[in-house]
Design goal:
about 110 residues; mainly alpha; three-stranded parallel β-sheet; 3 strands
Length: about 110
């Protein structure tokens, strides 16, 4: 299980920080042209491309893949994961990370 928490509420022991400038931080900032929904969708597309698409072999994104699969390993060990960002409880790219990590860990479990 993955839970997303807000860092403004204090640090959460054992939480994985996924805000900027962490490897899983959203490179798309909200501004007058990019609202929250679009920033989250752009992050989803970028993350999927880094993990499984055309950027999957790009060395520059190795830290992103390592951070993501660290979350997967924790899930596969049947431990809970807490992702820490600045947006929660609002919609956030951390929700996307949680969704993709949960799906990937379930896919891996089915293969075992």
């Amino acid at each position: 299980m993955i839970r997303v928490v807000n860092r403004r509420n204090g640090k959460h022991p054992g939480a994985i920080y996924v805000g900027r400038p962490s490897p899983l931080g959203n490179p798309y900032e909200m501004d007058s042209k990019i609202d929250r929904e679009l920033a989250i969708e752009l992050h989803r597309e970028w993350l999927m491309d880094v993990l499984w698409g055309s950027l999957r072999d790009d060395y520059d994104f190795a830290s992103v893949r390592l951070a993501f699969y660290n979350i997967i390993n924790i899930l596969l060990a049947d431990c809970g994961v807490v992702l820490e960002c600045w947006c929660a409880p609002k919609a956030c790219h951390a929700d996307t990370i949680a969704e993709l990590a949960t799906a990937e860990s379930e896919r891996i479990r089915r293969m075992q």
